[in-house]
Amino acid sequence: MGELNAMSDAMFSLGHLLTFANVALSSVLTILSFSLLAYTLTYNFRDAVARRFALLLACVMLVYASDVALDRVISADSAARWLRFQWLGIALLPVAYYAFSLAVLRTTNYPVARRRRVLWMIFTISLLSAASALFGRQLVGEVRYYPPISYLEAGPYFGLFALFFVLAVSLSLGNIWKARQRCLTDSSRQRMTYLLGAFLAPGVGIFPYLVGLSPFIGAPGSGIPILLLSLAVNSAVGIMLVLMSYTVAYFGVLTPDRVVRYRLLRFFTRGPVVAILVILAIQTVPTVERILGLPRDLVLFSVITGVIVLSQLILSVTKTLVDYVIYREDRDEIAWLRELDRRLLTTSDLRQFLENSLVALCELLRVPSGFVASVVGPDLILEVVVGPPDTRQQVLAVSDWSDALNRALKQSQGLYPISHAGFWLWPLLEPAQDNGSRAPVPPVLGMLGVKARTETPLLSQDELAVLERMIQRVARALLDRKLQQGVFVALRRIIPDIERIQELRGLIPYQTVDSAEPPAQALLNPSPIHSPEFEAWVKDALSHYWGGPKLTRSPLVHLRVVGAALEQADGNPTKALRLVLGTAIEKLRPEGKPNLSAPEWLLYNILEMRFIQGRKVREIADRLAISESDLYRKQRVAIGQVARVLTEMEQDNALERNSRSQVLEEAGERKA
């Protein structure tokens, strides 16, 4: 008798342990599917494959979230409601499977018009099955409530649904197999192999076996094998979901593979992993509470705080290891780029530095105001002004600062300034290199001016010593900013090249979903948006918006969206390009009434006044209450936004043409 009791206690303990493990694993899968769903919709939303995969993840999330809820229900009625809600994910999984596989097959330029009819049939059956499971008794019947195992009895049509489920998943698997066969490059075939190997996992893990096995579950102790099997299957589902998400992350993304891997790993470690650790810690709190004899709130607070802090600390400590795994031979270049990011001097940094230096200089010389201007091409741009509110207007009122700078260069007497318009002026020259070398004629970086305290400059030796360091400091800051602008220009040229390379890599093996042209035509006649000079072409076309060679001879006339606008422009390409540019600018217009002072209106106002109205730079700067240097910087940003909108318009035009071609394809097949 004692042996039987011991065996019963052991079975009871094993059952509780397996139940706890299954609930914890269901919580992990719920968090994992939700996190991967959020990642997919955030970074790959424009891609059809990613959107269909998101539907698949949503079904998985519904099923496992219901499993977690079922562990907490206390009545058969509550269990019945959650079990029927769980069937929403089960019934819609076949259509999610087939839609996802069809989107993958479509990326290989395979005609899928006939398969879309199958998709609609599967969609209809899935929708009817979901409605029946939620509100009817045809698929599933009454609930059997035997905690920790609860399930619904099989209805008269459950066998037909099981056959439909297997058939839909099999057809979906065939589509993925067909897509893998059509891949031409090793990398695409490898990723498709990963997807093929993990494809069945969600279906195997979600299918309601308990409904079919209901006649065999009633005996005591028979739940142990089911819990063991569920634990093994759900563990495999979690691994395969991550593998599928890794494969889908590359669809429709033009960034390098290294960036995709790093972004996915960073998101996974900082999001799902931390959330999973917190959930597991919360579920172990009752055990820790009993062992330590402490209040639940104290244990819960301590465990959650410890998990979050320690996980972030571990991620920071292991960052070098992650970089080694992700970047490998590119580690030195990535480290240099990160160092560059830390050392870059932003516009706000420069302005703050110049203001601090100028304030210190004015305090030293006992003068009330001063300014710093930089040389940009043939112009002098006012960078920063300190002093009374009317100082900026006093500086802008003088129109011959360039002549004064030339005179200061010719009449330079060491650190002694020249007097002009009530200011003392010093030219800012490029400082000597670290090794002491300097160009015979140092380039001019700008001009430093302070309010003249006397007509003839009189400076003490102490003032001259400090003044020399101040001038060198300001000149060094302007030089650094000049060098950084060169770096930015180079980066702006590199990024489109990378995107173009990634696009060509995708066009060679198969046609992308967003393209309505054959691969060969897309290679021979690429859209101007893929050129590294695209933004420069946009700037040139805007500068001659109302006519000029930069508009009439612009490569932007080859944009497909411009070709689509020819009918509205009476067949005139230049007029069509002007219409498209105007549309792009209007897309940047905020809602509401025009406002010259609102930040959200700044970019649109600059585009409107600079290119459409043709106003001068100084007039626009005065109306917007910003400096000319700020205006030039904001203008570059505004032109970049116009280029972005044009890119979106071109891609939307490709999607529209692709849809028309698919309609024509389906019409041709119906006639055949």
From TrEMBL:
InterPro entries, alphabetized: HisKA_7TM
Transmembrane regions: 20-41, 53-70, 85-105, 117-135, 155-173, 194-218, 224-255, 267-286, 298-318
Keyword entries, A-Z: Membrane, Transmembrane, Transmembrane helix
Keyword check for Manganese: no
Domain Histidine kinase N-terminal 7TM region span(s) in chain numbering: 28-231
Keyword hit for Transmembrane helix: yes
Protein name: Histidine kinase N-terminal 7TM region domain-containing protein
Organism: Litorilinea aerophila
